[in-house]
Structures are given as structure tokens and as C-alpha cells.
């Protein structure tokens, strides 16, 4: 018997493609909504092409769905400081339209927020979900604003929407040229003997989670029926950029050419997430260590380039 109907908004993206495949394997009835139809569709997925900014296409796509995995973001941390308008003008407004369209139904949104930006610079780590939110980028402010709006709908309309504060996922399907993906850049540029630019001294600490672990956590939240609405999703461990460089150098058994540039104003120095709530509420335990995850990713890249 099929599970609930689930649509992934942003199904062509890095997380989107992987979660589609994961949900199909878990016997969900799965749809994807994105700007274009993929060249390599996943068997069993119903694909819908449409524009997130087109109300008719968006609302038609989510009609009748039980779970809406909202992975679409029109910006990223760096881009938002150059073009600050997109997140406010599109992401917030369109998310409200989705909420308005489902507020009288039993549907729910699982919203992909940003565990790496909504907290700002924390006083201590690992950081918990009830810590102060103090983002230092337009991207982070956009995410926090959407979080507040979702929590308001939960409170006023009795909805069960969930906010997923995701750390830094990596693995098959990631593309660092889109503005995110340190591990992706280090691995690919390391394999190709290209120079990697690091902003700052490389001591910034982040939380990295392998994409399979992330998909497992999201699927568990699709089944969650408890009273909590906000969850950190991360490995629970922090690694500096310099540490990641050394790990990948060791696995590749070759040098990585690195250039250090001045720190960017909106870069957070250290953050990694406390995932205790996720463990206690849904039983999530990260299974793939940073070393194993990188080895798996390298094997994947070598396999697809043969």
C-alpha cells in the first residue's frame, strides 16, 4: 500500500533528486515540481514542469498533496548580499500562497530552512533549536521570516508544518558552481588539479551531512506526528575548512591547490548543530561518517566519469 502523496518543490535540485529517489524506494506516491522536466527522470515519479512564481501552476501542482517538501530557494547566502530582493519578493510571498491554499486541509509543508545561517554567530556549539536566531545575511533573514510565518499558521490554524534546519549536505548530484558545496568543490577541483579559493583563514567550522543521511532524516519527518515543529538536521559534528582539506587530501592521496582570500563579511566563523531532538523524536541517527561519505562521493564521481 502506498504512503501519503508527497510533492517535492524543487525536485531537480541536489536535495530534490536524492529525496525523490529515496521516497520512491520507501514506497511513497511522489511528484516533482520544477521549472523543467529532467533529462534522466526517476522511474515512478510524476513530473510537473512549472514556475514557482506562477500562482496557477504552483497551486495546481500542490492540490491534493498530503506532504509538500518545500526545497525551493531563489537565492543563496552569497548571492543574497549582492541581490537582496529575490528572497523577500519571491520566496516569502510564494510560501504564504502555498500556506493559504492548504490551511483548511490536512496537508503539511516540510520547509527546508538553513541551519547554517538562521542562528548567526552562536556563542557556543552544538547549537539547539531554541537558541536565538540572529542571521547576518539576507538569505538567513528570508529563512527566519518564512519560519515565523509557518509557526504562525501552525498556531492559528492548527497546522502541523515542519521546519527543517539543514546543515551542509554533500554527495552525488551537488554542484558547487551554484554557490554552495565546499566538499564538492574540494573533491572535484582536487581530482582535476584546479585551484580552490577559500574565503578567510580556513578555520571556519561547519557541520556536514551526507545526502543519504539527510534523506533518511527527511523521510522520518514525513511520518512524524508529534508536537514539535522545528528540527535541526546535521551530523552533530563540526569540522574546519582546513580540516576538510586535509581529510580530502588524505583520501585522494594528492595535494589540493588552495588560495586564501579575505574573509567575507557575512561568513559565520563556527557553527554545528545539536540534533538530539531529531534523535529523540524520530529516531534519526547519522550513519555515514565524514570520511566514509567523502570516499563514497569520490567513488561515485569516478564511476560516472569512466
From TrEMBL:
NAD-dependent epimerase/dehydratase domain segment(s): 7-234
InterPro entries assigned to the protein according to its UniProt record, in alphabetical order: Epimerase_deHydtase (IPR001509), NAD(P)-bd_dom_sf (IPR036291)
Domain of life: Bacteria
Pfam families xref list: Epimerase
Family: Belongs to the NAD(P)-dependent epimerase/dehydratase family.
Protein name per its UniProtKB record: NAD-dependent epimerase/dehydratase family protein
Organism: Clostridium beijerinckii (Clostridium MP)
Amino acid at each position: 500500500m502506498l504512503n501519503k502523496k508527497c510533492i517535492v518543490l524543487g525536485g531537480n535540485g541536489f536535495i530534490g533528486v536524492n529525496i525523490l529517489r529515496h521516497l520512491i524506494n520507501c514506497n511513497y506516491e511522489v511528484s516533482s515540481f520544477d521549472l523543467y522536466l529532467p533529462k534522466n527522470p526517476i522511474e515512478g515519479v510524476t513530473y510537473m514542469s512549472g514556475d514557482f512564481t506562477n500562482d496557477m501552476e504552483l497551486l495546481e501542482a500542490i492540490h491534493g498533496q498530503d506532504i509538500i517538501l518545500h526545497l525551493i530557494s531563489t537565492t543563496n547566502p552569497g548571492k543574497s548580499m549582492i541581490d537582496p530582493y529575490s528572497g523577500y519578493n519571491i520566496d516569502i510571498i510564494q510560501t504564504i500562497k502555498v500556506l493559504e491554499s492548504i490551511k483548511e486541509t490536512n496537508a503539511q509543508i516540510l520547509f527546508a530552512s538553513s541551519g547554517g545561517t538562521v542562528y548567526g554567530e552562536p556563542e557556543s556549539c552544538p547549537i539547539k533549536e531554541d537558541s536565538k536566531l540572529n542571521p547576518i545575511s539576507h538569505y538567513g533573514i528570508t529563512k527566519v521570516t518564512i519560519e515565523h510565518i509557518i509557526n504562525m499558521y501552525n498556531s492559528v490554524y492548527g497546522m502541523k508544518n515542519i521546519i527543517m534546519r539543514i546543515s551542509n549536505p554533500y554527495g552525488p548530484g551537488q554542484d558547487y558552481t551554484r554557490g554552495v558545496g565546499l566538499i564538492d568543490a574540494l573533491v572535484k577541483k582536487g581530482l582535476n588539479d584546479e585551484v580552490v579559493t577559500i574565503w578567510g583563514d580556513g578555520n571556519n567550522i561547519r557541520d556536514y551531512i551526507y545526502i543519504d543521511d539527510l534523506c533518511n532524516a527527511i523521510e522520518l519527518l514525513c511520518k512524524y506526528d508529534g508536537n514539535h515543529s522545528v528540527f535541526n538536521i546535521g551530523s552533530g559534528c563540526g569540522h574546519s575548512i582546513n580540516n576538510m582539506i586535509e581529510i580530502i587530501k588524505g583520501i585522494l592521496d594528492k595535494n589540493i591547490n588552495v588560495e586564501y582570500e579575505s574573509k567575507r563579511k557575512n561568513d559565520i566563523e563556527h557553527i554545528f548543530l545539536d540534533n538530539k531532538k531529531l534523535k529523540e523524536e524520530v529516531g534519526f541517527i547519522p550513519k555515514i561518517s565524514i570520511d566514509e561519505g567523502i570516499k563514497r562521493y569520490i567513488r561515485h564521481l569516478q564511476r560516472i566519469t569512466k
